[in-house]
């Protein structure tokens, strides 16, 4: 009887703690959304920001965030996919594999500001890329690789070994088995990890302050030269992102309606991150159902 009572008490304490955490998180999200959603409009999402006047928007910062996310994923996904395949399918249990896994764990625990300072020293100064999209994307690649590599590896390891045996029994080579059997089977988990890491990148600020810059120059949508500083796809132009814009408004903002702009931008950022997370779960479940029913 005492054991059952102790179990019920312990379970109740865990439920209470979990409920408190959920309530705190929900209250924080609701506070940001309630303050920010009334300020969101089409003009707010599309118009450029203003420094000393009211009525500015977040159009350029929102575009920069999306574009920087695309560049970062183009760089980091192939590398993390290759690393995850190696660690899951080819790496043996030796000191080299242990060093690689330890390095991944260390990199995944680094604060983003440290990654930003590393990117500033290496990409901005040493490689002379300056404050630019490419510097920010490379810094975010360093920030994103450990999480994405581990996600790919875990998704591949979740595929049952009989799938690999079936591919080999059909006469496929080891690489063909990985490419045609294992990777397609692990696609739902990999895609979920990609979307979740995208949300993490989209909301990043500290690493970009030192690499992508803190200014949002006007974009010339008639110029599609990737090396032009006025082109929307120019990789060597400065690109203040939405998260950096929020930080800058709250630290050194000069616009009269800075509070409302910050509230609206924060709500947009929270909504985008929530969409990434819920979208990852929905897409992952849907793909998993298709894979199991096929």
UniProtKB/TrEMBL annotation:
Membrane topology: Multi-pass membrane protein
Gene Ontology molecular function: phosphate transmembrane transporter activity
Location of this chain's protein in the cell: Cell membrane
Membrane-spanning ranges: 12-34, 66-86, 106-124, 259-280
Top-level taxon of the source organism: Bacteria
Entries under InterPro entries matching the protein: MetI-like, MetI-like_sf, Phosphate_PstA
Gene Ontology biological process terms, A to Z: phosphate ion transmembrane transport
Entry keyword Transport: yes
PROSITE patterns named among the record's database cross-references: ABC_TM1
Keyword Nucleotidyltransferase recorded: no
Entry keywords, A to Z: Cell membrane, Membrane, Transmembrane, Transmembrane helix, Transport
Ranges where the ABC transmembrane type-1 domain occurs: 62-280
Record's GO cellular component terms: plasma membrane
Family: Belongs to the binding-protein-dependent transport system permease family. CysTW subfamily.
NCBIfam families from the UniProt entry: 3a0107s02c (TIGR00974)
Name of the protein in question: Phosphate transport system permease protein PstA
Organism: Enterococcus mundtii
């Amino acid at each position: 009887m005492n054991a059952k009572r102790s179990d019920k008490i312990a379970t109740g304490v865990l439920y209470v703690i979990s409920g408190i955490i959920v309530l705190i998180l929900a209250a924080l999200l609701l506070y940001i959304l309630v303050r920010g959603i009334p300020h969101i409009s089409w003009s707010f999402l599309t118009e450029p920001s203003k420094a000393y006047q009211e009525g500015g928007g977040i159009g350029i910062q929102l575009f920069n965030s999306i574009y920087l996310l695309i560049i970062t994923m183009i760089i980091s996904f192939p590398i993390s996919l290759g690393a995850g395949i190696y660690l899951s399918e080819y790496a043996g249990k030796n000191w080299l594999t242990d060093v690689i896994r330890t390095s991944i764990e260390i990199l995944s625990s680094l604060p983003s500001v440290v990654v930003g300072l590393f990117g500033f020293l290496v990409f901005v100064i040493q490689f002379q890329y300056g404050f630019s999209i490419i510097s920010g994307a490379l810094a975010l690649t360093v920030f994103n690789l450990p999480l994405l590599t581990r996600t790919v590896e875990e998704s591949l390891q979740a595929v049952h070994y009989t799938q690999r045996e079936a591919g080999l029994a059909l006469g496929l080579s080891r690489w063909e088995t990985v490419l045609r059997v294992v990777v397609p089977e692990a696609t739902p988990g990999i895609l979920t990890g990609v979307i979740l890491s995208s949300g993490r990148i989209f909301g990043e600020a500290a690493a970009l302050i030192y690499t992508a810059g803190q200014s949002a120059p006007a974009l010339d949508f008639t110029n599609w030269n990737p090396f032009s500083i006025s082109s929307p796809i120019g990789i060597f132009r400065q690109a203040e992102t939405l998260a950096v814009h929020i930080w800058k408004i709250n630290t050194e903002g000069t616009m009269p309606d800075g509070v409302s702009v910050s509230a609206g931008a924060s709500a947009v950022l929270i909504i985008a991150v929530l969409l990434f997370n819920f979208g990852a779960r929905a897409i992952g479940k849907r793909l998993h159902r298709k894979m199991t029913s096929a």
